[in-house]
Structures are given as structure tokens and as C-alpha cells.
Specification:
The complex is a heterodimer of chains A (133) and B (401). The two termini of chain A are 20 Å apart. Helices cover 18% and strands 32% of the residues of chain A. Chain A has two domains: 71 residues, Alpha-Beta Plaits (2-Layer Sandwich), CATH 3.30.70.260; 55 residues, 2-Layer Sandwich (Alpha-Beta Plaits), CATH 3.30.70. Chain A is α+β, with helices and mostly antiparallel strands and 133 residues long. In chain A, strands 2-3-1-4 form a four-stranded antiparallel β-sheet, with helices on one face. In chain A, strands 5-8 form a two-stranded antiparallel sheet. In chain A, 34% of the residues are buried. The longest helix of chain A has 10 residues. Chain A is built from three helices and eight strands. In chain B, strands 3, 4, 7, 10, 16, 17, 20, 21 and 22 form a nine-stranded antiparallel β-sheet that branches. A four-stranded antiparallel β-sheet of chain B has the order 6-5-8-9. A three-stranded mixed β-sheet of chain B has the order 1-2-23, covered by helices on one side. Chain B has two domains: 275 residues, no CATH class; 87 residues, no CATH class. In chain B, helix 2 crosses helix 3 and helix 3 packs across helix 6. Classes of the chains: A alpha+beta (133), B alpha+beta (401). At the A-B interface, loops of A face strand 21, strand 27 and helix 8 of B. Bound molecules: iron/sulfur cluster (2 copies). One iron/sulfur cluster (SF4) binds next to loops of chain A.
């Protein structure tokens, strides 16, 4: 069974639980963490590859723990023709992948820091953030 | 000797290619170096700009007459209703209008992906727009139904008329509650998780003419990438000077503009359909206003910097919605632009909603037009009311029936 890439989004209240450990131990899933951004008392995101017999059960467990699971988009890009550099996404993006150059106030996107949480897709008022599956 | 210039003198300089034009950002350094008087002597025009969501925007359309004719009692453009309680085949499409079957916030937070502002943007982009109309049929207008496609070129008039634009100043919005809220000031995280502000600050048109010394009815402006005019003062035009409880002054706020222009010569980059998660659809509008440097007072006004301009910090989880007066203090645009402010002892990240780079680009374009002699200044027919007129806001009482 091929590994699937997924993104897990944790609320602040659960970011200190050993959830990934349970995935491995209780469901025998093999995982490979691609990116993680988990800080105490903050919303966290983990991008991982996951395989194993009990894949579906593992996902059910995650959701029962209040973790939001999304299939992973391969890449996000900022459509520079559409982006107005308004800046509205820059304090919403959890990792600082979308940020402002100061003092010019131009918005920039560093895909290396993007954990594909996709919040910007909804928050961008002109839908300048685009997803490539 | 006091410096006095007339509109005619400035326009003559523009015609002969001798006018000195700076943007509201560029003029700051000149005044700091040379002082107000010398700067007023040297500079003829200062250009301003803003590029922000402005909900009170829309367009009057005249579709032309079909054969047989229809009165058009109800009109939809790409499924968005337009107001047609005016003459036959005239309609007004408002920027915040939504499809009748939009789930809105019943699927909270709603996405509001397509509204009136998006139709305006698509018209400008040259796209074909579905026009549907219904009517009751009269002896002179027999048709009762119509469905066709139009483009901006096909129709008679498309007059952008925005009743309330270019807010002089705006709140800095925060959220004191324990849950995320979705507002016209964007997504506000719980417990003072972030702060959003929406002004071009030192580039903003009405912050550069805070006392309405030059802007009035008939002022020619940059509107949506083309040329427009100030039509009137905007709705809710309550120009004033912000003060705190100790009566310290925090600068001007409260002015607004009603603007008008021919949509057909505007550009889709400068009128952009916009969606606010959990709030609604709107239109982001680009406006730039030239300020003629008639005297030193005007020069002194345009030399303000982000350090001199302040936004009141307002809680949008309760105080705003419940109309509770007061605020959480004032922060300068210079502080806001550092990316962090401190409110109630907590350091919180800030983000703008109004594009400063686009505001700069608008001020630059307007400067370019004036320098090339393509754009001359118009003397207003009548200046707009200022803080001296002491216009105060009325509130709406809920009376029993
Ligand atoms: S998906 Fe968007 S909000 Fe999330 S990390 Fe990437 S850029 Fe930031
Ligand atoms: S919210 Fe959208 S338009 Fe605004 S800066 Fe971010 S990507 Fe660009």
C-alpha cells in the first residue's frame, strides 16, 4: 500500500498529547514526518506520509482526538498577478511563509516554510493563493 | 512672503511640462530637509493613493432596449441581483450584493466567493456576463422575460458611483473574546491574537487633506485605473479630530467621499472583486487624489507621516457590534507597520488589509499622468464639509410599533 501524504491540524488544547506515538503503537502505522510546526499553546500542523493496514482506523482515531485531517496538496503558489499585497494573510499564516517586507510592505511567499495548512486559501480576499494537487 | 498659487497657475505649469509633482511619500523627506515654506515654493502638486476594500461601491448600467422592449422589473447579472426600481433598462449593481441562493453564513464562516464586486471586475476584464430580467408587461413594454449575454462594450452606460469611499481613517480591529471571529476587518484571532488595520496612512487621500482645504465637488481623481470625480461628500461623512479622555489630539478621522466615473475607461487591476470569509463580498477600489499646493497650509497638511497618524484600537467581538463607545487606545501607523503593537500589556502581531504597495503605485501613476500633461487639476465647485462644520452621527432608535 502506497504511502499517503496528509496534513494534521491540531488545536492548542491537544498539541501536547502524544498522538503520533499512538498512531504507530496502537495502529501499527508507519510514518514519515515531512514538516512539523507544533508549539505549546499554539495551533500546530504536521505534514506526514502514512502507511499501514489500519490506515482508516488510524485516521478515525485522529479525528476522535479532535485533529483535523486533510489530504495534502502538493504545493501552494501565490498568483503574483492577483495578489494585491494587501497583507491580510500575513498574521494568519501560522509559519510566516507569507510575510511582509518592511518598510516596503510588499508581501512575499516562501514555499519552503509553508506547511500547507491552506488557511490562506480561505482568508485571501482575492483568492490569490492557489493550490496544485 | 506667503506663498499663494491658483489652480490656473498650477494647470499652466502642467500644460508646459514644468509642474513639480511629488507623491505624499516623497514629499515627507523634502519638507524634513527644506521646511514647509521652501517645499511649498518648490512643489505644485502632491499625489496620494489608497487601494482598499470599499463596500459602498457599485455601478449604474443601461443595457439598451431589446426587441420587443422590456421594462426590467427584476435584473440579475451572473445571478447577482441588481436594483432596477428606476427607469426601464437602468439598474444599479452594488458591490456587496450576493446571489439569492448564497449559503451566506448558514455554513459558517461563509465564503462569499462571488458577489456584485466580482461582476464589476468581470465586466472590466471584458468577460461575457449573463443578463436575466423579468417584468410584468405593459402596453409599451410588452416583453416579460429576457435572458442574454452582455459585455461592457455592448451596453450604453456603465457609471461607477460609489456613495462612500476613501475613509479618512479607520479602526484597528482586535478580538477580546475567546473565539475566532470573522469580520469585515478580516479574521481576528481570540484573546488579542492579532490586530488588523486598513489605511494607507501617510499616502491616504483624506489624511493628506484633513481639513478639506482642496478636495470638493468636482475634484478630478484617479478612480479604478481611470479618471473619476468627487461627486459629493460620502455617506457617514463626519469629519472630526480624534481625542482621548484627557483631550489629547490623535489627528483627523471620519471624512468619506462619494465618487463617480465612467467604468468603461477603468481597469480590472484597480477594481477587484473581493471576498471576506464570514463577512461578505465587496470591491477593492483604487483611488488617488492630487492635492494642489495652493499655500503653506496645504503643504503642511501633506507633509504628515505615519508617525503623526493614529488609529483607534477597537474590539470587534463586542464593543463594535454592540456600539459601546470608547476604544482600547490609539496606535500610530508607524507602530502598526512594524508588525507588532502592545494592547492591554500584550504584544500582538498586526497586519494591514489595505495594500500600501498599491497605494504607492497609484500615487506614482497619478504623478506620472500629471507630469506628462495628461491630467490637469480641477477646481472644486464647492469644498466638502470639514471638522468645523461639526456634523455628528445620528444613531437609529428601535421604536416600538
Ligand atoms: S498554506 Fe498558506 S497559511 Fe498555511 S503555511 Fe502555507 S502559506 Fe501559510
Ligand atoms: S491575502 Fe491574498 S492578496 Fe492579500 S497579500 Fe495575502 S496572498 Fe496577497
Amino acid at each position: 500500500m502506497a504511502a499517503k501524504k496528509i496534513i494534521l491540524r491540531f488545536g492548542k488544547d491537544i498539541s501536547d498529547k502524544p498522538i503520533i506515538y499512538h498512531l504507530a503503537k496502537d495502529y501499527g502505522l508507519v510514518f514519515n514526518i515531512i514538516k512539523a510546526n507544533v508549539n505549546p499553546n499554539k495551533e500546530g500542523t504536521v505534514v506526514l506520509e502514512l502507511t499501514g493496514e489500519q490506515y482508516a482506523k488510524g485516521l478515525e482515531y485522529l479525528e476522535s482526538e479532535g485533529v483535523r485531517v486533510q489530504p495534502l496538496a502538493e504545493q501552494l503558489s501565490r498568483n503574483e498577478l492577483k495578489c494585491t499585497s494587501c497583507g491580510a494573510c500575513t498574521d494568519i499564516c501560522p509559519t510566516g511563509a507569507l510575510y511582509l517586507h518592511r518598510p516596503s510592505m510588499e508581501v512575499a511567499f516562501d514555499s519552503d516554510n509553508c506547511v500547507l495548512c491552506q488557511i490562506c486559501l480561505k482568508v485571501c480576499p482575492v483568492k490569490a493563493m492557489e493550490v496544485k494537487f | 512672503m506667503a506663498i499663494e498659487k491658483t489652480y490656473a497657475e498650477i494647470n499652466e505649469k502642467i500644460r508646459s511640462g514644468k509642474a513639480v509633482v511629488l507623491t505624499a511619500e516623497e514629499v515627507i523627506a523634502l519638507v524634513e530637509e527644506k521646511g514647509v515654506s521652501e517645499a511649498a515654493r518648490q512643489v505644485d502638486v502632491v499625489t496620494t493613493g489608497t487601494f482598499s476594500p470599499m463596500c459602498s461601491s457599485g455601478v449604474f448600467l443601461n443595457f439598451g432596449h431589446s426587441k420587443p422592449r422590456i421594462r426590467m422589473q427584476k435584473v440579475w447579472l451572473n445571478g447577482i441581483p441588481a436594483y432596477s426600481g428606476i427607469a426601464a433598462v437602468d439598474a444599479y449593481l452594488g458591490a456587496t450584493e450576493l446571489p439569492e441562493d448564497d449559503p451566506c453564513n448558514s455554513n459558517y464562516p461563509g465564503e462569499f466567493r462571488y458577489g456584485g464586486g466580482h461582476v464589476i471586475h468581470d465586466l472590466l476584464a471584458g468577460k461575457s456576463i449573463k443578463l436575466e430580467a423579468l417584468s410584468y408587461g405593459t402596453d409599451c413594454y410588452p416583453r416579460r422575460e429576457l435572458e442574454t449575454y452582455i459585455t461592457l462594450n455592448d451596453i450604453n452606460e456603465a457609471t461607477l458611483f460609489n456613495p462612500r469611499n476613501a475613509y479618512q481613517n479607520y479602526n484597528c480591529a482586535v478580538n477580546l473574546s475567546g473565539k475566532t471571529i470573522y469580520t469585515y476587518m478580516g479574521l481576528l484571532k481570540p484573546n488579542l491574537g492579532n490586530a488588523h488595520y486598513s489605511s494607507a496612512g501617510q499616502l491616504s487621500p483624506l489624511l493628506n487633506d484633513p481639513y478639506f482645504l482642496t478636495i470638493g465637488i468636482g475634484t478630478r481623481i484617479f478612480l479604478g485605473g481611470g479618471i473619476g470625480y468627487v461627486a459629493w461628500h460620502g455617506t457617514q461623512h463626519f469629519p472630526g479630530i480624534q481625542t482621548d479622555q484627557e483631550k489629547n489630539s490623535y489627528g483627523p478621522a471620519g471624512g468619506t467621499l462619494a465618487v463617480i466615473g465612467d467604468l468603461k475607461q477603468m481597469k480590472p487591476e484597480w477594481l477587484v472583486g473581493t471576498s471576506y470569509l464570514g463577512y461578505g463580498a465587496t470591491l477593492t477600489v483604487g483611488i488617488g487624489i492630487p492635492i494642489p499646493i495652493l499655500n503653506e497650509d496645504v503643504m503642511s497638511c501633506v507633509s504628515i507621516t505615519d508617525r503623526d497618524l493614529y488609529a483607534p484600537v477597537v474590539d470587534y467581538s463586542d464593543a463594535y457590534g454592540q456600539r459601546i463607545p470608547g476604544n482600547l487606545g490609539y496606535v500610530s501607523y508607524a507602530e502598526l507597520k512594524t508588525g507588532k503593537i502592545t494592547i492591554n500589556g500584550k504584544e500582538i502581531p498586526t497586519a494591514p488589509l489595505s495594500s500600501y504597495p498599491k497605494a504607492r503605485e497609484i500615487a506614482g501613476k497619478l504623478k506620472d499622468w500629471i507630469q506628462k500633461g495628461d491630467f490637469s487639476l480641477s477646481e472644486p465647485v464647492k469644498l466638502l464639509p470639514s471638522f468645523q462644520d461639526q456634523i455628528t452621527a445620528k444613531t437609529l432608535d428601535i421604536n416600538g410599533v
